[in-house]
Specification:
five-stranded mixed β-sheet; Heat Shock Protein 90; 5 strands; alpha+beta; single chain; globular
Length: 600
């Protein structure tokens, strides 16, 4: 590529970045098309990586986060192949931010740590750019730790970001980190310390002129901390100033936050007309920018500020949106996991095919060297003998194994029948009775019956079959962990992706899934555990599952197995497996399951 072509390429890339930051989606789309056209002629891998990058940016501007995640992944993989470390680290950072926004904190942490592997050892002609992204990675890790209430880790990551900033003197990175530290102390109700950090950032020379976005963040958070301390002086003035600047710089996303804060302020001092106005404005901007958290907050505020039918309408909209967002977050996490899994799988398949080709070539060379026909004949005879013995042994084991599977299948059909009866008949009758009680103004009895109905429905779902056709085993396990994962209850899965689950019988996968779910429930409900480790492995035609926690433990000799553990024991024995439980008071509990893999 000549000098003129290089200049054209660099200008296109710079114009694309500018279009994104100015939120000019149509212009960005045209630039992306031009980059694709040039790539088709030059076949320059850098342009292909940039094409996928700009496709991701287009999706971000239209709030299509799952598609953005996919294109970032494609861009990262192209840069990996060309050994271009800095773009790989940047794309991984973008992936981590998307995952954090979707509350996929585990995935975001993994992407952030991988980004560090590409950014930290990188030597570049532009160290300032490198330090800028390193600062962002450590800030992202701090934000994740803050969300998970891991206080020490959060502060450690923020301090690391400040250390990097000293090497770079990046004002925006420094202000962003100072703001995040202030928010950390605000979250744990240490608002006096938070105010010190916000004031530290606001003392920066000509801040409102040089960095208006950082300025409004710090000023608004300072006002919020003062408000939380019960101080009224200057709070409303700060909020109004923030509102004016955000409108000027067209920060529609941030406007929803400011209007929520103004609504809270006026609501507290009983100026309900102004509070309602700001709640409606917050709702408008939240819908415009898909700011889901503020959308929910605005609906809740409007429900509190209105009465009668209007209040019920806002409340119902809040409930519907909240349920939809929970489902959306799960789908996003599943989609992110699927993209990561399929990308890794393709890489492994390519490596496997390469190895297989090398093996085949070596085998051909070896065969050419064979000259002794008699030796080959003897070897074949011996081989046939062992194959015959192995075949009959295998046949016998397979018959026994199929018998066990038939028993499991019968039990599975019975579970489905009972689950269907509970869901369609019992729950339906309870629902009808609940409606009649409500019409009869027997509200308390109706509420109690509703709880019974929900218990029956949950029981029917627990009894129903787990399908691994629509959602594979790995994604089912990720969903399970995501459902129970909480700041004070950390669950980690190890080695699950090292096993080819497509070759494992569905009854074994169901046993492993149900055993894991029962163990997690026990850890959360009885063990008072804060950490659970789940390990998978395959050795010598057996699949192993171990689940350990740091809970209170129990005395195995004195405590009887509950119905959950008894059911687990029966399922394991149905498949010729073994179950072992190890526990001591104060030292946690470990469950180990060993099941033979199905023969084929």
């Amino acid at each position: 590529m000549g000098d003129s072509e290089t200049l054209i390429k660099e200008k296109l890339i710079e114009d694309g970045r500018k279009a994104f930051f100015e939120k000019k989606r149509l212009k960005l789309k045209k630039i992306t098309f031009k980059i694709d056209s040039i790539f088709n002629i030059s076949q320059d891998s850098l342009l292909l990586a940039k094409y996928y990058h700009f496709r991701a940016l287009q999706c971000k501007l239209s709030y299509q986060n799952d598609s953005a995640f996919y294109y970032y992944h494609q861009s990262k993989n192209i840069s990996k192949k060309t050994n271009d470390s800095l773009p790989v680290g940047r794309r991984l950072l973008s992936l981590a931010v998307l995952q954090r926004n979707a509350k996929d904190y585990l995935g975001s942490e993994i992407s952030s740590i991988e980004a560090l592997e590409y950014l930290e050892p990188k030597k570049t002609k532009e160290p300032k750019e490198l330090y800028k992204y390193l600062n962002s990675v450590y800030n992202n890790l701090g934000l994740i730790s803050n969300e998970l209430s891991q206080k020490e880790d959060a502060i450690r990551f923020y301090n690391k970001a400040l250390e990097i900033n000293k090497l770079n003197k990046n004002d925006e990175g420094y202000l962003y980190t100072i703001n995040n530290i202030g928010l950390f102390y605000q979250k744990i109700n240490k608002n006096k310390i938070a105010i010190e950090y916000f004031n530290k950032g606001l003392s920066f020379d000509s801040l409102s002129f040089k960095y208006p976005r950082n300025y409004v963040l710090l000023l608004e958070n300072l006002a919020a901390s003062k408000f939380l301390l019960g101080k009224r002086e200057g709070v409303i003035i700060s909020y109004e100033k923030v509102l004016k600047i955000k409108k000027r710089i067209k920060d529609n996303w941030g406007l929803s936050t400011t209007h929520v804060n103004l609504c809270d302020y006026h609501k507290r001092f009983k100026n309900f007309s102004k509070a309602k106005y700001h709640a409606n404005e917050a709702l408008k901007y939240a819908k415009l920018t898909h700011n889901n958290q503020r959308w929910l907050e605005a609906l809740q505020l409007l429900s509190d500020l209105t009465t009668g039918k209007e209040s019920k309408t806002y409340l119902q909209e809040y409930i519907t949106l909240n349920d939809s967002l929970v489902q959306q977050e799960r789908q996003l996490k599943n989609q992110f996991a699927k993209i990561r899994y399929e990308t890794g799988k393709k890489e492994k398949e390519n490596a496997f095919l390469k190895t297989e080709n090398e093996k085949k070539e070596a085998e051909i060379a070896y065969q050419k060297q064979q000259t002794t026909i008699g030796w080959l004949g003897a070897a074949v005879s011996i081989l046939l003998f062992f194959i015959s013995v192995s075949f009959f042994t295998f046949r016998r084991k397979k018959i026994l194994y199929q018998a066990q599977l038939q028993k499991a299948q019968v039990r599975e059909r019975e579970r489905r029948r009972i689950a269907k009866s509970l869901h369609d008949e019992v729950a339906g009758d309870l629902r009808l009775l609940h409606t009649r009680l409500e019409k009869s103004q027997m509200i308390e009895e109706a509420q109690k019956l509703d709880m019974v109905k929900e218990n029956v429905r949950n029981l029917s779902h627990q009894l129903s079959s787990i399908s691994f056709k629509k959602v594979n085993f790995i994604d089912q396990m990720i969903n399970l962990v995501s459902d129970y994962f909480a700041p004070g209850f950390v669950i980690k899965i190890h080695n699950i992706k090292d096993i080819d689950w497509s070759k494992t019988n569905r009854y074994i996968k169901r046993l492993l899934y149900l055993s894991t779910r029962e163990s997690i429930q026990n850890c959360k409900k009885y063990a008072e555990a804060s950490k659970v480790d789940i390990n998978f492995s395959v050795r010598k035609k057996y699949v192993f599952l171990s689940i350990s926690d740091n809970g209170v433990g129990f005395d195995i000799n004195t405590c009887k197995k509950g119905i959950g553990l008894q059911n687990m024991q029966e399922r394991v024995e149905e498949l010729n497996g073994t179950l072992a439980i190890k526990s001591e008071l104060g030292k946690g509990t470990k469950i180990e399951i060993q099941v033979p893999l199905n023969a084929k």
